[in-house]
């Protein structure tokens, strides 16, 4: 375990990181590495021999490829005894399970007379060109000439380990912060003594805890019922061949622990409350038994038998994509119902009674109340992904409406990385003697995650943007996602990165669904190096290739921190998180350190003061341009809204009879009740 006040290891002392960085530099500079490895004294004859050997290897590889293609032609020749690797839950090869093809095909069709949206990238590029032109004019007047404001050729070299960037040894760093750490430890001792006194004075706390444990034992199924046989592969679970072929097609390997324990119990039809760390394969854990059970469904009449709820649109699209690929060799039908997509097309698909519906709560209730011929009275399985978020107050009323519409005899499964076993919250879901499957601690980060923390002192809060730019310019130059608390902060930082010449995208609630999907796909395909996101992208999304997660602010809830850093180090891969920690975040920092898994690394990162001052000056110079871009964007948005209102009025005049003949869409709450709930939440 990690101590409360000290970090386990400094970046400078990490030999493993040195090797990682050296490998990355070798991958980036393949040509130079090969040239370095060649001996200087190599003769022409040895080069010819090596070329001849390389040609022989190529011929052998071509022969192997031909033999493998001939064996793949026979679809019926399926190897039922295929084995899996150790990590599990991941995907191998190009057939990764994550894409938004189905969601993009359901985007709203653009109207021919619609006003084009403001392209923020075009505005940023225009400002950059204007600034460059101004620079050239000044350079022509001056004999010396200035450097380009947006190209930093004078960036400092990285530290020897590649990730240090001026890291200070832990002992030296502690000398500067001895006073603060001593004060912190003193306050901790005082608070601990106060807590001991409170526990002695209040003997009812232990009794209430014992009563709560007794409630849990009575509510959940016994641990003996949860015990299942060990499975080395999916074939030992007696799954059907189409399901096994779907798993092999996606590239899923040896089942993870949550899959190994969940699938046999889910096939029995029992209610499940499951929790495991992020990236452990929870999605496949509930999709595989669902597909297996649907293979034996009655086919005389079509009916919607499975409902999967997700808190965000992107997560629902991802679950739909995984389910469709795993069930690609079956006749099971799927439907995606989320906001921002074509409503009429969703209604048409729901009329055909798809077997599985993946939806967000709001859009699902809309279809239940307003789409003709669609109901949940035939639902046999209800699944909630990221269930702890769905059980919060924000989704409480919507969730109650959905639960009432489903039959009571259904099977219910709840999954999340931070799943709670609070009986009062789970009672709302009408679970029937559920099985509790908590594979890992609910408050623990992944074992292969390296957690780093950058201290932001109280009088240095204004330097956060400069620290972030320094990290991204010097050290983490690609495959990095940055989390912010607000949509405005993410948007402004995207503009700042664009002015600095950094290729960045953004993902938050102010974007259209098309823009959100496009940003995710561009980041997935490495067309964008940085993704500025809010907590919209913090839950469930399995984007391949995220190496680093940076928290611009420490979130208010520790569960949200775990979900953020869980975007990397998934499915047994390595990952790194960097969090900017202020003075008010000490409590969350201690919780994060305690959450580190055994054997994982927690480090203190120090960014050199010279680099912070350098980039702070650049940020201050670019502040007027950022304000100009925001103002120009605001004016274009207002103009676009005015033109849209004009088009709406014209359509109302031309097609008033058709518009007023449509039935009004209803909701389970009135407008007054909506306003009251909003006021209460504030």
TrEMBL record:
<dbReference type="InterPro" id="IPR014014">
    <property type="entry name" value="RNA_helicase_DEAD_Q_motif"/>
</dbReference>
<feature type="coiled-coil region">
    <location>
        <begin position="612"/>
        <end position="652"/>
    </location>
</feature>
<protein>
    <recommendedName>
        <fullName>ATP-dependent RNA helicase DRS1</fullName>
        <ecNumber>3.6.4.13</ecNumber>
    </recommendedName>
</protein>
<dbReference type="GO" id="GO:0005829">
    <property type="term" value="C:cytosol"/>
</dbReference>
<dbReference type="InterPro" id="IPR050079">
    <property type="entry name" value="DEAD_box_RNA_helicase"/>
</dbReference>
<feature type="compositionally biased region" description="Basic residues">
    <location>
        <begin position="57"/>
        <end position="66"/>
    </location>
</feature>
<comment type="function">
    <text>ATP-binding RNA helicase involved in ribosome assembly.</text>
</comment>
<keyword id="KW-0694">RNA-binding</keyword>
<feature type="domain" description="Helicase C-terminal">
    <location>
        <begin position="448"/>
        <end position="620"/>
    </location>
</feature>
<feature type="compositionally biased region" description="Acidic residues">
    <location>
        <begin position="146"/>
        <end position="159"/>
    </location>
</feature>
<keyword id="KW-0547">Nucleotide-binding</keyword>
<dbReference type="GO" id="GO:0003724">
    <property type="term" value="F:RNA helicase activity"/>
</dbReference>
<keyword id="KW-0378">Hydrolase</keyword>
<dbReference type="GO" id="GO:0016787">
    <property type="term" value="F:hydrolase activity"/>
</dbReference>
<feature type="compositionally biased region" description="Basic and acidic residues">
    <location>
        <begin position="118"/>
        <end position="133"/>
    </location>
</feature>
<keyword id="KW-0347">Helicase</keyword>
<keyword id="KW-0539">Nucleus</keyword>
<keyword id="KW-0067">ATP-binding</keyword>
<dbReference type="InterPro" id="IPR014001">
    <property type="entry name" value="Helicase_ATP-bd"/>
</dbReference>
<feature type="domain" description="DEAD-box RNA helicase Q">
    <location>
        <begin position="232"/>
        <end position="260"/>
    </location>
</feature>
<feature type="compositionally biased region" description="Acidic residues">
    <location>
        <begin position="172"/>
        <end position="203"/>
    </location>
</feature>
<dbReference type="InterPro" id="IPR027417">
    <property type="entry name" value="P-loop_NTPase"/>
</dbReference>
<dbReference type="GO" id="GO:0005524">
    <property type="term" value="F:ATP binding"/>
</dbReference>
<dbReference type="Pfam" id="PF00270">
    <property type="entry name" value="DEAD"/>
</dbReference>
<feature type="short sequence motif" description="Q motif">
    <location>
        <begin position="232"/>
        <end position="260"/>
    </location>
</feature>
<dbReference type="InterPro" id="IPR011545">
    <property type="entry name" value="DEAD/DEAH_box_helicase_dom"/>
</dbReference>
<dbReference type="GO" id="GO:0003723">
    <property type="term" value="F:RNA binding"/>
</dbReference>
<keyword id="KW-0175">Coiled coil</keyword>
<feature type="region of interest" description="Disordered">
    <location>
        <begin position="1"/>
        <end position="235"/>
    </location>
</feature>
<feature type="compositionally biased region" description="Acidic residues">
    <location>
        <begin position="11"/>
        <end position="32"/>
    </location>
</feature>
<dbReference type="Pfam" id="PF00271">
    <property type="entry name" value="Helicase_C"/>
</dbReference>
<dbReference type="InterPro" id="IPR001650">
    <property type="entry name" value="Helicase_C-like"/>
</dbReference>
<feature type="domain" description="Helicase ATP-binding">
    <location>
        <begin position="263"/>
        <end position="437"/>
    </location>
</feature>
<keyword id="KW-0690">Ribosome biogenesis</keyword>
<feature type="compositionally biased region" description="Basic and acidic residues">
    <location>
        <begin position="204"/>
        <end position="216"/>
    </location>
</feature>
<feature type="region of interest" description="Disordered">
    <location>
        <begin position="663"/>
        <end position="682"/>
    </location>
</feature>
<dbReference type="GO" id="GO:0005730">
    <property type="term" value="C:nucleolus"/>
</dbReference>
<dbReference type="GO" id="GO:0006364">
    <property type="term" value="P:rRNA processing"/>
</dbReference>
<feature type="compositionally biased region" description="Low complexity">
    <location>
        <begin position="160"/>
        <end position="171"/>
    </location>
</feature>
<dbReference type="InterPro" id="IPR000629">
    <property type="entry name" value="RNA-helicase_DEAD-box_CS"/>
</dbReference>
<comment type="similarity">
    <text>Belongs to the DEAD box helicase family. DDX27/DRS1 subfamily.</text>
</comment>
